[in-house]
Amino acid sequence: MSENIVSKLKERVNELERQVENLLKNQETTQAILEAMPDSIFILDNKYVFRCYYTQKVEELYAPPDFFINKKINEVLPAELSALTMESIDNVLRSKQIHSYEYSLEMKGEIRFYEARMVPKGDKEVLTIVREITERKNYEKEILRLATVVEQASQVIVIFDSEGNIEYVNPAFEKSTGYTFAEAKGQNWRILKICELDAHVYEELWDTISSGKVWHGIFHNKKKDGTMFYEKATIFPIKNTEGQIVNYAAVKQDITIEKKLETQLRQSVKMESIGNLAGGGNDNRKMTTCANPNLTTLSFG
């Protein structure tokens, strides 16, 4: 009987050792995950009190841990953010669902933006993962500003992929060509039926932009209604932060009027040259006419 007890004790000890080993492995895994995360983590209870935290950059917290731990949210955060956070805690504990929200804080004299994801931790606590998104917000703001410029630009702007398929056109494109964005999207940029572009020029264009350089040239295109028009184009690659080409863009200006004026001027110069030559011929004939009587007189003199 004693041997049976000893055997069971050994089994229990072995089981506990395995559990401890698994626990340590889980702790190591958890620690590794936490260290790899750029986020800060906070646990708050249903009384809106900060219970614990984890962050790699204590200096970037709104307040030092020894100040906010075991304090209520409204004793630490600004009133508007406190109200938003407390409302989120109530919603998460009631719905048992993840809740996300964004907010801003003034930190060291500048406004920073954050995204918070809150999940229930039992019935009385929530775990909140906070990530700074200032860079993303600034990027979005810049994109919005550039998008506004592009939308309002008088020049035609087209963005297309590596196969030449259109992904975006601005309103100026619709006005200039007669094609709507919906009609142009997904179509090859040669939807405009480019004329007078030699194969070697077309090849040179793609060689130039695919090597990361800018191409300049003139297209003789056809509008949706069949009208021919000239465009001065600048085509260049769009690169991501790693320097890889992800798209191409074309900025184009209708120069049909300039081309017509240029043709008229060339024709005018040509006609003037012909006129000058014709005028010179008449003078020669006059000289001959005047000379002939003299020659006649001399003949019979």
UniProtKB/TrEMBL annotation:
Residues 6-33 form a coiled coil. Residues 213-267 form the PAC domain. Pfam families: PAS_4 (PF08448), PAS_9 (PF13426). Keywords: Coiled coil. Residues 142-188 form the PAS domain. InterPro entries: Biofilm_reg_signaling (IPR052155), PAC (IPR001610), PAS (IPR000014), PAS-assoc_C (IPR000700), PAS-like_dom_sf (IPR035965), PAS_4 (IPR013656). Signal peptide: none annotated. PANTHER family: BIOFILM ARCHITECTURE MAINTENANCE PROTEIN MBAA, DIGUANYLATE CYCLASE DGCP. This is PAS domain S-box protein.
